[in-house]
Design goal:
globular; 6-stranded mixed beta sheet; 2 domains; 4-stranded antiparallel beta sheet; alpha/beta; Osmoprotectant transport system ATP-binding protein; 39% helix; binds magnesium ion; P-loop_NTPase; binds adenosine-5'-diphosphate; 14 helices; 13 strands; Rossmann fold; single chain
Length: 309
């Protein structure tokens, strides 16, 4: 568990981060969202002590970070930034194995971990472990950067706009990959982004920063349904709110018994998928794939959004 307790950073008259407190449970993704200059990067860098707080404390599984030497702390906390930050003259394997090597892991253990991570990131170890960063595509470099940050099984992975440089299509893939890998490894992640869409896709909890203050912290569905301030509402995008909410609700939640005509929706479809499919096919109900006949209706979708209007 990561506990951020009244943490503040002042630069002269500027309060970059103003008394922020929040807790992140082990094995979850927290997205820190806000506009440029809201203090996201400063908050993240106080967690691994790249920036020393003016006030307040961070505890990792109960231990204050102030009690751990910064260079040791940073071996326990992965850090991935925009642009992968790989060592250009080291192979993929050496890049990924950098921290385990510092920690004194045996060569066999490092090799096994490198291959395990390459597999997880869908990069065949035999093909990729001896390559150099310049022989990789942008998306592959990014994956190696994240694999490196995860190599030593850190207590926490900090990511600062990790996908900011990727084009939108690769970006969506990278987000899906991160979520899959995070679930497989059970990693705890704090990720900074200015993109609310990204936060909604990835996070278990969203923390919204505005002018150094934490203005709302909660599950994506709560942030969308009940934004705490006009600023949060603006971040979420008033117009998109109903659609975003729909994209978080599985179709199975409002499916009714009984058959319907038309192309069936997969069991893992969301209400947003169901709405699109209904509109696209011009039908007021569609079947849902499952053990017993079920269907979803436009009326039920409308009723579900209306409840949050
Ligand atoms: P974000 O990552 O949300 O864009 P930052 O944490 O980088 O925001 O910055 C928050 C505020 O703190 C900004 O006003 C920025 O100018 C200021 N700031 C950040 N780092 C420094 C620094 N080293 N010296 C002075 N001011 C800083
Ligand atoms: Mg920043």
């Amino acid at each position: 568990m990561i506990e951020i307790d009244g943490i503040t950073k002042r630069y002269g008259d500027t309060t970059a981060v103003d008394a922020v407190s929040m807790t992140a449970q082990t094995g979850t993704i927290t997205a820190i969202v806000g506009t440029s200059g809201s203090g996201k990067t400063t908050l993240l860098r106080m967690i691994n002590r790249l920036v020393e707080p003016s006030k307040g404390e961070v505890r990792i599984n109960g231990t204050p970070t102030s009690a751990i030497k910064p260079h040791l702390l940073r071996r326990r906390i992965g850090y991935a930034i925009q642009g992968h930050g790989l060592f250009p003259h080291h192979s993929v394997a050496r890049n990924i194995g950098a921290v385990p090597q510092l920690l004194g892991w045996s060569p066999d253990k490092i090799r096994a971990r490198v291959d395990e991570l390459l597999d997880l990131f869908s990069m065949a170890p035999d093909e990729f472990r001896d390559r150099y960063p310049s022989d990789l595509s942008g998306g592959q470099q990014q994956r190696v950067g994240v694999a490196r940050a995860l190599a030593s099984r850190p207590d926490l992975l900090l990511m600062d706009e990790p996908f900011g440089a990727l084009d939108p299509i690769i970006r969506a893939r990278a987000q899906d990959d991160l979520r899959r890998i995070q679930r497989a490894l059970g990693s705890t992640i704090m990720l900074v982004t200015h993109d609310m869409e990204e936060a909604i896709r990835l996070a278990d909890r969203i923390a919204v920063m505005d002018a150094g203050k934490l203005v709302q912290h909660g599950p994506p569905a709560d942030i969308i349904a009940t934004p705490a301030t006009p600023f949060v509402a603006e971040m979420v995008g008033e117009a998109d709110r109903p659609l975003r909410l729909l994209s978080l609700i599985p179709v199975t939640e409002i499916a009714e018994d009984g058959a319907a005509d038309g192309p069936p929706l997969p069991a893992d479809a969301t209400l947003r998928d169901a709405l699109s499919a209904c509109l696209w096919t011009g039908r007021s109900a569609l079947p849902v794939v499952g053990a017993s006949p079920a269907h979803v209706t436009l009326d039920a979708i409308r009723a579900r959004v209306g409840g949050h209007g």
